[in-house]
């Protein structure tokens, strides 16, 4: 591989990483604003954790994926990337589970602490297995090795999470569930969030695999370009659609105002009907008197 191709690939990776990072920071800002208005919003907390893991993974990839001069540091970078990517997948699954339970039961109360324990701790046993089997590449780049242990440390856990996420999405989107989300608009927003997560999780798995392929085939500018483009598009998709997955506080307030307005109109119409009926009855009572007088 020539020095020019290496330089071009580095520039492509830098531009793609910065584009993805911009979308990630905007998403984090939007979630922080939502939590400021509604601190107990479990969906926003889940999105915050997922986006935080995604942002840290992107930063670590940009800074350390080529740190092959020190084998120990390179392996730590690879372990960190593996952990953060699995954590993102776990948080995406947790989001679907949370929305499904909200749609299913009116008595559902989010268990945010359990969600955090599940999503941040579940990747650790998988990583321990990868360390035992030496499933990381440290000679040419600092990430997972496509030739050693990737099936167990990547394909199996991520495929299981994607399958579970798909099942929850199908159950939630098909309808027939009435739950704690209440109003129809809010319920539809929850189902929209399920659909978005169902798209993001397999797309993120494909992105992860493309990253490994791009590093394994370092001479291919096409694979590098495909990886960074997919990375940027996925993060901008999350910013543009996942934040819209559930109605904001303003939308909920608008729905409440509409309900109040409709209730007031119904009361006023009842009063108008009662007044009109009273007038008709009074006129009927006055007719005999008018006849006698004439």
Describe this structure in words.
With 294 residues, the protein is mainly alpha-helical. It folds into 2 domains: 1-246, Rhopdopsin 7-helix transmembrane proteins (Up-down Bundle), CATH 1.20.1070.10; 249-286. 80% of the residues lie in helices and 1% in strands. It is built from 9 helices and 2 strands. It has helices at residues 3-37, 42-64, 71-104, 112-121, 123-132, 150-173, 184-216, 221-242, 249-293, and strands at 136-137, 143-144. Helix 3 (71-104) packs antiparallel against helix 7 (184-216). Mean pLDDT is 78; it is low at 1-5, 176-183, 247-257 and 288-294. It is a multi-pass membrane protein. GO terms for molecular function: G protein-coupled receptor activity. Pfam families: 7tm_2. It comes from Laodelphax striatellus. The chain crosses the membrane at residues 12-32, 44-63, 83-100, 112-131, 151-173, 194-215, 221-243.
Short description:
This protein has 294 residues and is mainly alpha-helical.
Provide keyphrases for this structure.
single chain, 294 residues, mainly alpha, Rhopdopsin 7-helix transmembrane proteins, 9 helices, 1% strand, disordered N terminus, disordered C terminus, glycoprotein, transmembrane, transmembrane helix
């Amino acid at each position: 591989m020539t020095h020019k191709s290496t330089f071009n690939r580095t520039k492509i990776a830098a531009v793609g990483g910065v584009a993805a990072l911009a979308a990630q920071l905007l998403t984090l800002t939007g979630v922080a604003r939502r939590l400021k208005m509604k601190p107990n919003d479990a969906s926003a907390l889940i999105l915050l954790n997922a986006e935080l893991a995604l942002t840290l993974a992107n930063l670590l990839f940009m800074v350390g994926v080529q740190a092959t001069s020190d084998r120990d540091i390179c392996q730590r970078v690879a372990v960190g990337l593996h952990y953060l990517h699995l954590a993102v997948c776990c948080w995406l699954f947790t989001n679907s589970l949370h929305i499904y339970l909200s749609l299913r039961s009116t008595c559902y109360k989010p268990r945010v602490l359990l969600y955090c324990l599940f999503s941040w701790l579940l990747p650790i046993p998988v990583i321990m297995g990868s360390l035992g089997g030496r499933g990381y590449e440290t000679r040419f780049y600092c990430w997972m090795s496509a030739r050693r242990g990737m099936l167990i440390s990547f394909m199996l856990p991520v495929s299981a999470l994607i399958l579970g996420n798909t099942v929850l999405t199908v159950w939630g989107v098909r309808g027939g569930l009435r739950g704690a989300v209440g109003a129809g608009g809010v319920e539809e927003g929850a189902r929209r969030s399920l659909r978005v997560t169902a798209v993001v999780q397999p797309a993120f798995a494909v992105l992860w695999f493309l990253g490994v392929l791009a590093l394994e085939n370092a001479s291919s500018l096409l694979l590098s370009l495909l990886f960074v483009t997919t990375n940027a598009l996925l993060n901008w998709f999350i910013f543009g659609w996942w934040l819209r997955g559930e109605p904001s506080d303003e939308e909920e307030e608008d729905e409440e105002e509409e309900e109040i307005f409709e209730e007031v109109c119904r009361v006023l119409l009842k009063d108008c009907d009662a007044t009109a009926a009273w007038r008709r009855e009074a006129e009927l009572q006055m007719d005999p008197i008018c006849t006698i007088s004439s």
